[in-house]
Write a structure and sequence with these properties.
The chain has 200 residues and is mainly alpha-helical. It has a domain of 113 residues: Functional domain of the splicing factor Prp18 (RNA Binding Protein, Prp18, Chain A, Up-down Bundle), CATH 1.20.940.10. It has six helices and two strands, in the order ββαααααα. Strands 1-2 form a two-stranded antiparallel ribbon. A hairpin with a 2-residue loop joins β1 and β2. The longest helix has 22 residues.
């Protein structure tokens, strides 16, 4: 008997284009699997603003300070407790005479300055001209009066603090002539230190 016949069925080798054999069984149903739509097109974003589908909500942050923070000025160089122009009532001309007289007296008694005395006197003349032309506000005038009184009362350290405050806060007004006053102050400090050494 031919081996190709088995249980009334004809057995043969399937060809290359024959469909696969399917076993029909009503008891078994193949699981339904979702299809992966790998060929689905995704719209290319026009801008990079919203590239993520679920972006985190914006966080309210404090604004960043503009520029680098400025270093604090030492207390000795900050603006001194001088009232504003509206609170100052001084006779500008008489204060100028008083200030220049005190500074010139100190200059004439400081023979050790030598050739520097001429430059100091020239700078004091510049201060006088700016004062008379109204280029020095009342704050500067009041502080120069305080500075001259400190030198008269042999308090050169106090005068030096006033000089530094003026150079920080009013440099555009005092920058041309203050170096002459600075030399007088430093000379007074050196002389005061020498006197304290002699007393010891």
């Amino acid at each position: 008997m031919d081996n190709s016949i088995n249980d009334g069925r004809v057995s043969f080798d399937p060809g290359w284009n024959d469909p696969p054999k399917i076993s029909f069984n009503s008891q078994q149903t193949p699981p339904i699997r979702p299809r992966n739509f790998l060929n689905k097109r995704v719209a290319f974003p026009l801008s990079g603003a919203n590239t993520s589908p679920a972006s985190a909500p914006p966080v309210n942050l404090p604004p960043m300070p503009s520029g680098a923070p400025t270093p604090p000025v030492p207390p000795s160089l900050t603006q001194r407790d001088t009232p504003s122009n509206s609170d100052i009532s001084i006779n500008s001309e008489s204060v100028l005479v008083e200030v220049k007289t005190l500074l010139l007296e100190l200059l004439e008694s400081s023979s050790e300055l030598g050739a520097k005395a001429h430059d100091i006197r020239r700078r004091l003349d510049v201060m006088e001209l700016m004062w008379m032309d109204g280029k020095l506000n009342l704050e500067v005038q009041a502080q120069m009066k305080e500075l001259a009184h400190a030198l008269r009362d042999d308090e050169p350290k106090k005068a030096d603090d006033i000089h530094k405050a003026l150079m920080v806060n009013e440099v555009s007004k005092v920058g041309t002539w203050m170096p002459g006053v600075k030399q007088l102050i430093h000379h007074s400090i050196a002389r005061s230190e020498l006197l304290s050494i002699d007393k010891e």
